[in-house]
């Protein structure tokens, strides 16, 4: 990012009015010069404590969506950005939008102004805005981009929700089991020692597990922490991320869900770029840049190379071995009929709907399954604890 420090300022306007705000600049001298260029005399200039702000995708979507609305209402791009900068609640976004508006006033293109902020605006944003500038349909490109971003956010949230639920339930189950094993069972163990009868096998097994956890629990916890730390370190490596993605796609339940989400994203971006008039190869490059997983990036890179060498698109997709037969069939039909953009849009819609349905089915399937698993685990512990008490009468009779 060219401007990596946020500066808060107070200044006097040519009319003598006091104004304040924030701007992005690399150093104090640059920030001071920027204020002077706006005919503002700085009174105070200090660096904000916000050194690495979080650029939420939700804010990015809202900015593009609101900008599309303002452009369709007849406002100019510069005026729309000024309005958004004045109304945005986040200080760093306010300064960013004002900086882009200043670049436009200086004669820079909108796409070039966005390109200066790669940490905020992905390459897809730059490509779509450049297409809108060339075709004169910037408002339509903003609207389509905002709709695509909204769909992807909803789909991602749906998938995360479906996967988050079992993790929470299993974590609670493990916490309950550990509490019962470490806190409750030791109390019962003292009572069981007064019995003059052998303990049931189930109770002996549970008590053995409790003794093992009490003796080696700290060591197991340390081992778990070291393992998690190692995985967090290794996951940054490209080969590890590729291997884990391949393993994920082979999972019977999670695999189709993860595949559907990625295919939905790929075909949505390809459809969006095709509708905007971007060439397929350039749209494929934009799609590749929007994907964070190296596995899918490598697959799209291989498809790009095959298409560049003259291979049909459907054949390149087929060689990648990650696309469904429906994808191959519709893309082949679109190439033959000249309606590739329509087929890509249909594929994007199909995978969106299918992934939403799979996420709902996963949640409805896991809820009763997790209840059964949790009930069996806790029920086994309760039975193991109280089973010797049922034989207390026999023990007293024998005494």
TrEMBL record:
Organism: Silvania confinis
Main location: membrane
Record's protein name: Protein transport protein HofC
Residue ranges occupied by any Type II secretion system protein GspF domain in the UniProt entry: 64-186, 268-388
Alphabetized InterPro entries for the sequence: GspF/PilC, T2SS_GspF/T4SS_PilC_CS, T2SS_GspF_dom, T2SS_GspF_sf
Membrane topology: Multi-pass membrane protein
Entry-linked Gene3D superfamilies: Type II secretion system (T2SS), domain F
Compartmental location: Cell inner membrane
Lineage: Bacteria, Pseudomonadati, Pseudomonadota, Gammaproteobacteria, Enterobacterales
Keywords: Cell inner membrane, Cell membrane, Membrane, Transmembrane, Transmembrane helix, Transport
Family from the record: Belongs to the GSP F family.
GO BP of this protein: protein secretion by the type II secretion system
